[in-house]
Automatic annotation (TrEMBL):
This is Phosphotriesterase. Belongs to the metallo-dependent hydrolases superfamily. Phosphotriesterase family. The keyword Hydrolase applies. It comes from Kribbella ginsengisoli. The modification N6-carboxylysine is found at residue 130. Keywords: Hydrolase, Metal-binding. The keyword Metal-binding applies. Pfam families: PTE.
Length: 305
């Protein structure tokens, strides 16, 4: 099996130490003045991540939010770090007025094209479909986008990663994507679960077979980061260490380490990983940073190219 990186197909076993959820480039209407759009700053962050032992970063920035795909390819080529780009669509409020209404009728077509032909004229193919739910429920926008994502997943085999608003509604997402739309649970990555630190809920989700992503440390997630290890412990003790992913989720210029206040992408390895090793052991840390990403981000099934 392979992972589709910005430089082409990569054998999954070569992905290496992975930040499973982050952003090198991101521009949202909700974060004016905090755009991640500086290619030099992004490259500096990637070099520092590599110096800490990192080998791959999965980008969760979807369609229309400033992905700078050509810059991703250049950074990957210059640094040797594997990068995965995303297609998909975020919650409507992240976009300028009118854009969502314009693209909604052809979402599946857009997703498939970016996965199989490339993002714009960059020639860089996405390897991930990023979509978003609502707070505890799936509104009409979320349902339309997720149905399109399921269609694109069936056509391409690409994994689907979900932003859960404050970590909620992951059960409703699985109901729609897996039970109603027939997406294999192992092709679904449930994100931001650290923002909803309900151990029982996490165990219910893990039992349904999807991957669970915990996206701290992050300046945006600071209120729930102290509960991260308790959440992980409950799942590891229940035998679900093979479903867990970790990411930094850097979404603002302020949160970058290279040019802002941090903690930034490198902290995932310089700060969090040593604590994981001390708490759970080196084998568990390797599962979360190496083994699980190599299974979560593969393209499954026949892909049109």
């Amino acid at each position: 099996m392979t992972v589709r990186t910005v430089l082409g197909e990569l054998p999954a076993g070569e992905l290496g130490v992975t930040d499973s959820h982050d952003h090198l480039f991101f521009r949202s209407a909700l974060l004016p003045g905090q755009e991640l759009d500086d290619a030099d700053a992004a490259a500096a962050e990637v070099r520092d991540f590599k110096a800490a032992g990192g080998q791959a970063i999965v980008q969760w920035t979807p369609y229309g939010l400033g992905r700078q795909a050509a810059d991703l390819a250049k950074i990957s080529a210059d640094t040797g770090i594997h990068l995965v780009a995303a297609t998909g669509l975020h919650r409507a409020e992240h976009y300028p007025a009118g854009l969502v209404d314009e693209v909604r009728p052809r979402l599946a077509e857009i997703f498939v094209r970016e996965l199989t032909e490339g993002i714009g004229d960059s020639g860089v193919k996405a390897g991930l479909i990023k979509v978003a739910g609502g707070f505890h429920v799936l509104d009409e926008h979320a349902r339309v986008v997720m149905v399109a994502a399921a269609e694109a997943q069936h056509a391409t085999g690409a994994p689907i990663a979900i932003h859960h608003e404050l970590g909620s509604a992951a059960d409703a997402v699985l109901d729609l994507l897996v039970d109603e739309s027939g997406v294999a649970p192992e092709s679904v990555i449930l994100g931001h679960l650290n923002r909803f630190p309900d151990h029982r809920f996490h165990l219910e989700l893990a039992a349904r077979g999807s991957f669970l992503a915990f996206d701290g440390p992050s300046r945006a997630n600071n209120a729930t980061d102290p509960r991260l290890f308790d959440c992980l412990a409950a799942l590891i003790d229940a035998g679900y260490a093979d479903r867990l992913l970790l990411g930094g989720d850097t979404t603002t210029a302020r949160a970058r380490a290279a040019t802002g206040e941090g903690p930034g992408i490198p902290y995932l390895l310089t700060g969090l990983r040593p604590r994981l090793v001390r708490t759970f052991g080196a084998e568990i840390a390797t599962q979360l940073f190496v083994d699980n990403p190599a299974r979560a981000f593969v393209t499954r099934g026949t892909v049109r190219s």
